[in-house]
Amino acid sequence: MADEAERPTIVIELASDARFARDLAAGGVFVPGCALAMNSECALVVRGPHEELELTARVVYVDPKTGAGFELVGFGPALRDHLAKLMSAWGAPGATDDTDEPAQSDADTAANAADADAERDAAAEDAADPEPDAEPDPERRKIALNMQERLRGLSVSQQVKAARSSDPQERIVLERIYNKNVWEPLLRNPRLTPPEVARMARMGTLPRVLLEIIVGNGAWLQVPEVRRALLANPRLGTDQIIRVLRMLPKHELKLASTQTAYPHAVRDAARRLLKD
To answer: Are 202 and 243 in a shared domain?
Structure first.
């Protein structure tokens, strides 16, 4: 009972953000400005227009600058259906996906999303290893070269330790040098940013057991960039595909059923979910 009394309470107002209802119905939610530690449990109080609901949630993603991502403890089909009905009854914004499709075509939407993902990856890589032709600031170039020199020749234990770094540029350089040797410790780093997760999620050589780490993180699955990267990965297993697709808003699920950039197994599973 003492633990229950000491458990922190986080309150979210459904009316304040349309994403809250959608994300809760998918098993998690991102709370801006929350400073709880990784793996902390809390009482998540969801306030509707006339009543409130208390859930148990666990921190699965932390960004010191923006907030924390939570997964709902004990989330399953029964709780998902219960939440969906509540959100609909409360008239929560974002609770349903039956709104009109945007004027932008599916092809344009997919192309823009892919371009945005590619630009983010390129920006991250350029920051870690600027091109010689770009003539970067000499001091910045020196720092980048020093980082690469410092990270080369590390023992396995040193690689694992470096993978826990809080510096995203250092993590990117580390992954480029050691590849699969540091994939798992990087994915275990709670400071890993969504663009870094997405970059690894789209790697066709990433083992399925490591893909499971990403798929099993409810906060990461709330990031569209990460979902798209996972669905484009041909190594994603059938059960993993279903779990990712269930996180998609209806208009994204429709797009996934026809998007040729995704493997046939993804398109087929999306079509079956649309029929359910």
So the answer is: yes
